[in-house]
Amino acid sequence: MASLRLRIFLALGAVVIVSLATTGLVSYLNVRYQVAKAVFLQVDEGQAPQLPLSVLDHLVTALEGGASPETVAETLSGLLRETDYHGVVFDGEKQVHGTYPAELADAGPTLTPDGSLHFRNPESEDAPTTIKIRGPFRVFRNEAGAALGYLYLFPNRGLTDGSLPDSMLPEHPARRMMKKVNTWQSISIVAIGLLALFVLYRLSRRLLRPIEHLTLAVREIAAGDLSQRVDIEGDDEVAELAAAFNAMAGELARQENLRKQMVCDVAHELRTPVTNIRCELEAIRDGLMTADAATIESILEEVLSQSRLVEELQDLSLAEAGTLALHPETLDFDKVIDGACKGFASLIGQAELSLVRQRGEAAKVRADPERLRQILGNLLRNAIAHTPAGGTITVTTSRDEAGAVVTIADSGKGIPTEHLAHIFERFYRVDSSRSSETGGTGLGLTIVKNLTELMGGQISVTSEAGKGTSFRITFPESSGS
């Protein structure tokens, strides 16, 4: 397959060549016509002699009456004898019907449909000399509008013995001038064409060089090198493409770093509790510990903690794939919120926090109750983890034009502005610590966002450093009972 550069070069080159060829042809024909008219014929309606109307009428009468060529030639002779012009009269069938001087008939003038006069070249019967003029000087018509004849005039250039004037011979200086003009015109067209093709080649290289660099960078990224970037030059569409590529490559690199960090985080989250469980079980096996209720309860808590991590990973995978099973019902929005608050009242109390519940106008939503409680639970756990003792968690329900709204706000340390755009991304943690008490695995908010959108809702966050964070979730209202 031809490269894009070659196709652009060929397409634009074809346009240049056709344009130059057309220009050259039109110029050649125009020069040929103008030289023939100005040098060979030197006649137009403004330069031709003024013909007496009485003589013209006599010619018309002769043609109408079918006068012989000799009669027409005699009339034409009386018309042109005192001028420096020769003439040819053709009848309505474009046949010669009289010439002046009479010897001109021996040169075999013929009239073609395109308005050209042809004379035989006495030096070569097979190469007639063509003299083009702007059509007949005069057309004679009858009352019905039919052509009776045509009158052509051209200046006297020494016609003798039926031979063409020297000025009409092929090697006349004017013809040599035409040849030189055409030669230089051809050279200039070829030179301009070559220059245009060179410019096109350079231009195509300049236009496509960034795309070639992009192609190479894409191949490197496909091979696993996410550090590839391309230089941005100018502000055109190609520059925008390069900027978009760099942004995409940067995002891929960031996601890859997050993935690697997630693997480390998950390994860390699993390593410590699994090690604890193994040590406790080995101690029980070796008789160093007693398998009493407290020990079993401790091991069970560790197992449940890891089960939650595995469930979060599974929920996230299903939600992002769009295959998570939902069982929507028409729910009393405030009632579900109240249930979630009661379920976390103990944890909030243990963290020495205050819970403020504010209710607005009652609303009903269509949602999966289990997943809705999971959303609220993740947000409340997040608020508890990031609010210091003595702080407040405020849960507010309301209604607006978009539907039912719940806002969960805390008075914690807030989220730095540079992190707000990324907190819903999987494995992203504002706290770079590996501690599950502060940083977690970075999956909770991602799950919240995916579950909310799967049920037709929207979530947003606002935060101010040192003053707290507020998550706002909106669900469409349900008209069902």
What can you see in these coordinates?
The protein has 481 residues and is of the alpha+beta class. It has three domains: 129 residues, Beta-Lactamase; 84 residues, Signal transduction histidine kinase, dimerisation/phosphotransfer (DHp) domain (Helix Hairpins); 149 residues, Histidine kinase-like ATPase, C-terminal domain (Heat Shock Protein 90). Helices cover 50% and strands 18% of the residues. It is built from eleven helices and 14 strands. A five-stranded mixed β-sheet has the order 9-11-12-14-13. The protein has a four-stranded antiparallel β-sheet with strand order 2-1-7-6. A three-stranded antiparallel β-sheet has the order 3-4-5, covered by helices on one side. β6 and β7 form a beta hairpin. α1 packs antiparallel against α4, α2 runs antiparallel to α3 and α6 crosses α11. It starts with a helix and ends in a 6-residue tail after the last strand. It is an enzyme of class 2 (transferase). One of its GO terms (cellular component) is plasma membrane. Its main location: membrane.
Structure summary:
It is built from eleven helices and 14 strands. With 481 residues, the chain is of the alpha+beta class.
Question: Secondary-structure element sequence?
Answer: HHHEEEEEEEHHHEHHEEHEEHHEE
Q: Outline the low-pLDDT stretches.
A: 39-48, 158-172, 434-439
Q: Helix share of residues? A: 40-55%
**Second CATH tier, the architecture of the largest domain:** 2-Layer Sandwich
The CATH topology of the largest domain, please? Heat Shock Protein 90
CATH class of the largest domain: Alpha Beta
**End-to-end separation:** 64 Å
Strand content: 15-25%
Report the radius of gyration as a whole number of Å: 50 Å
Provide mean pLDDT, rounded.
76
Shape: elongated
Query: By CATH's scheme, which homologous superfamily of the largest domain applies?
Result: Histidine kinase-like ATPase, C-terminal domain
Order of strands side by side in the largest beta sheet?
Answer: 9-11-12-14-13
Structural class by sheet pairing and helices:
alpha+beta
Subcellular location: Membrane
Keywords: Kinase, Membrane, Phosphoprotein, Transferase, Transmembrane, Transmembrane helix, Two-component regulatory system
EC number: 2.7.13.3
Organism: Sulfidibacter corallicola
